[in-house]
Amino acid sequence: MSLIQEEPATTQRVRGPGYRSGLRRAMHEIVLVGVLFIAYKIGRLAADGHVGEALGNAGRVWHLERLLHLPSEYAMQHAVIGQAWLIKAANCYYAYVHFPATAACLIWLYRRRPELYVSTRRTLAWLTAAALAVHLLVPLAPPRMLTAVGIVDTGRLFGPAVYGSPSTDTLTNQYAAMPSLHVGWALTVAIALIGAARRTRRRWLWLAHPLVTLLVVVVTGNHYWLDAIVVTVLLGIVLAVQSSPLATAVRVPQPRAGES
To answer: Hey, how many other C-beta atoms are within 10 angstroms of the C-beta on 7?
Structure first.
């Protein structure tokens, strides 16, 4: 009787060429997502150093929104600022949901919906590149820096704070408010997950993620309404140019024969 027990055939198959190929693909995707994240950070830093221009643009955006009769970010923030727990929850959502939710979506799509994973990853990459170009062309201070109109930095006042003082923060560019990638990524994630569950009516609940994100970025003083509008337009352009499967993923499917 042999003292060395052979591995089951199923284990040998798992560790065969298919297993190694899958592992290589997974590592490849991890590297691509890592490069996207690094490019995002480098691009934001490259746009830094335009304080005067960013503040001037902030004033122009504020007045343009009033001309367009968009809701006041000041009024919305101060409607809830008396509820400390709600403001802290918004700060936490802004700080802790953006990247993890996007990463979780990509991982799930990679494992369960690979055809949507590729188009989603590509859409996020092109949307981020387009947003960084706008950041470079139009530096914009966020509403929380418009102290003259009464908007406050809820992260600094209530915590948790994502950003430090603009004069000493070397990790992020705080003058890149337009467009809002928080909203853009959240909307892309929602579209992908809606497309992944096409025959479930509850799939539309995924729209809660970008809607909550929109409210959060406004209440916390990190973005203007126009930041969300611009990123939505950019996302539409990216999807149209790509002719991506993601662009058609949320179409209502036709019922099969015999289905009511």
So the answer is: 9
Domain ranges, ordered by start, for the chain? 22-162+173-248
Q: How far apart are CA 126 and CA 149, in angstroms?
A: 35
What's the mean per-residue pLDDT of the chain? 82
Report the CATH number of the 22-162+173-248 domain.
1.20.144
DSSP secondary-structure letter at 4? S
Q: Residue 158 half-sphere exposure, CB side, CA atoms within 13 Å? A: 21
- The verdict on whether omega for the bond into residue 160 sits within 30 degrees of 0, i.e. cis, is yes
Q: pLDDT tens digits, residue range 86-143? A: 999 999 999 999 999 999 999 999 899 988 898 898 899 899 889 988 988 899 999 9
How many CA within 13 A on the CB side of residue 219? Answer: 22
